[in-house]
Design a protein that fits this description.
Blueprint lengths: L19 E2 L12 E5 L2 E5 L2 E4 L6 E3 L7 E2 L2 E2 L7 H7 E3 L4 H5 L1 E3 L3 E5 L1 E2 L2 E2 L1 E6 L8 E2 L4 E8 L7 E8 L34 E2 L2 E2 L5 E2 L7 E2 L3 E3 L2 E7 L4 E6 L7 E3 L2 H4 L28 E2 L4 E2 L4 E9 L8 E10 L2 E4 L12 E2 L1 H11 L4 H4 L2 H11 L1 E9 L6 H4 L25 H7 L4 E11 L6
Parallel strand pairs: 1-8, 2-32, 25-26
Antiparallel strand pairs: 2-3, 4-13, 5-8, 6-7, 9-10, 10-32, 11-12, 13-31, 14-31, 15-27, 15-32, 16-22, 16-31, 17-18, 19-20, 21-24, 22-23, 27-28, 28-29, 28-30
Length: 452
Amino acid sequence: MHSSIAFATLAFAAGVLGQQAGTLTTETHPALSMSRCTTAGCATESHSIVLDANWRWLHSTSDSTNCYTGNTWDSTLCPDAATCAENCALDGADYEGTYGITSTGTALTMTLKVGSNVGSRVYLLGPKSENYVLFQLKNREFTFDVDVSNLPCGLNGALYFVEMDRDGGMSEYTNNKAGAKYGTGYCDSQCPQDIKFINGEANIAGWTPSTNNANTGTGSHGSCCNEMDIWEANKISAAVTPHVCNKAGQTMCTDNTTCGAGDDRYNGVCDKDGCDFNSYRMGNTSFYGAGKIVDTSSKFTVVTQFITDDGTDTGTLTEIKRIYVQDGVVIQNSKSDISGVDGNSITDTFCKAQKTAFGDTDSFETRGGLAAMGEAFGRGMVLVMSIWDDYAAEMRWLDAPYPATASTSKAGVVRGTCGADSGVPATVEADSPGASVTYSDIKVGAIGSTYS
């Protein structure tokens, strides 16, 4: 589950055409390495990160006029979707000064608020800055260290994978001149309709400014794709959640039904609910948090294993297993304490039992379940890291009672110790502007090779 963002609206001069980059701010990608591991050891790869296009300044190609100000498009520069893409350019990013993003080369820190900007989203970029790094994780494990000690209620430090185009859609859509180098092409299982450019064209048709966020709005189109939420968390709660779609790769939805908006939530291309494992929601309230078994007051390691039916890279994905390591101690994931739901990992059996126990609609199974998630990884998925607050549901689905109107005595409603009103974005941003998350020591490799 992902929200989008406070859009930067400053204007810059440029001499480029199409959905391309401006020239005032040099685009310098912060370095971020990762390791690929086998049972014989790990080898380091040098990569970098790139800021999502939706956060970038968007301006006329011929002067310093904003194409987008607040949550409204300029009607002269953007009379229609294609013309807007020709008239408007993305600019480079000041990662630290504007967005609070810093990197040591092995660790990435993301800060909630710098000035008027709120949150950010970045992707792992290959060495030539032309393509995102693709991950095929069947019969593999993915491991990273995280520090969530500075993430209070209502915030989400998310690390996840989505099936977006490797080059950001640059080769497929002629109006996309910026590509992965400038963070284009985002999609996820929520089919976000606040994306300003989809498939190389502006999402201005039916654009409606948000009533509770001065920087965002929604268009009639959305950008959908399979999503594997390895990590959605703060210092209170954490969830691992696969979401699947009934189409392969990035696809544009064009109305509320296909986008799954509002009352059409379960009619869309993708499974918006997913099949989540949140230890607190699954009945173990002493496992994750400050001073608990996984102690969120200090850094720890998160290991996620993608198990196939036959133990091969081409097998069918049948299990997603979670392990933690902290202070040299390997900690197996907590077990479900919900009646009728067994286990401490995500399987199709677990998902079906959980949906039944909680009375939730099972849109995960109807869109293919774990096998579909595995097929997406077989095609390759892009690594995303973000920090955000939630204008749609105030992050209650992660760390508080949700839905807000449901009885807290009902199984599955309470997701953590946060209050039902703790995630109001205006309050979170005012009280914790310096909130941050740090991701580090990213590794991928054979099962059992990335941790000890």
